[in-house]
Amino acid sequence: MVAPPALSALLEQEPRSLPKASGLRLMEAGHDGGLRMTARLRDFEVRDLLSLTQFFGFATETFSLAVNLLDRFLSAVKVQPKHLGCAGLSCFYLAVKSVEEERNVPLAADLIRISQYRFTVSDLMRMEKIVLEKVCWKVRATTAFQFLQVYYSLTREKLPLERKNCLNFERLEAQLKACHCRILFSKAKPSVLALSIIALEIQAQKCAELTGGVECLQKQSKMNGRDLTFWQELVSKCLTEYSSSKCSKPNTQKLKWIVSGRTARQLKHSFYRITHLPTIPELGP
């Protein structure tokens, strides 16, 4: 079964943008308190990047790319925990400059100040160069967000006009963000993760007419049925936990607290939203 051109292009590029599986396993095997990077530290850093994404009102595409860059970097280099904040912010800044409009890109000094880090702009720029070298200067990557966009568009085409709102893309984006906050899902192919989210949402919204569409997309993507089922189960568990009070969610309150009126006046960009920070929509059914 031949895939549509947009999907074919993403599937062809997908293998070039994956983090190293061996590096991800090393982080998962790491123990907190040592000199090695761990999955827990990585997840904390990604949640901080999500807080920044929400604070600035940046696109989900920016966050997804930042996570991809960070995972590719951490899986290729033995980063000490003390350098994680600088590495994470460097990946985030690269993603922002790659995706967002130039007029919305904050100054490096402002980004460091808002993030409450103590390193300098020079430190950030040095780390940015190291990240670029380790990802072979390939900043643009094929991400789960891009697959989510394509799958959503292809799925929605099959719905009658009165059912177009059956799937809400904002909810799908929120679910992807939640998955990105766990290193586990960095081991899934972006295409598999995206289709797992779509398939689960179709079940949740009882869009029975789209079940065949998911099977069609699976075949067009040459995706193993067992793999899709396996990751669907893990995504479902993740979203259930994320919706519960036990899950640690991005701390936008910390960002809101740090930006005083005086600091806000010093910032040179008008897009800082201090009193109305965007939040992730509820993930429950």
UniProtKB/TrEMBL annotation:
Annotated keywords? Cyclin
Q: Which PANTHER family match?
A: CYCLINS (PTHR10177)
Protein family according to the UniProt entry: Belongs to the cyclin family.
Q: Does the keyword Ribosomal protein apply?
A: no
Q: Which residues form the Cyclin-like domain?
A: 47-133
- Which gene does this sequence derive from? CCNG1
The entry's protein name is Cyclin-G1 isoform X1
Q: Does the keyword Disulfide bond apply?
A: no
Q: Which InterPro entries match?
A: Cyclin (IPR039361), Cyclin-like_dom (IPR013763), Cyclin-like_sf (IPR036915), Cyclin_N (IPR006671)
Q: Which domain of life is it from?
A: Eukaryota
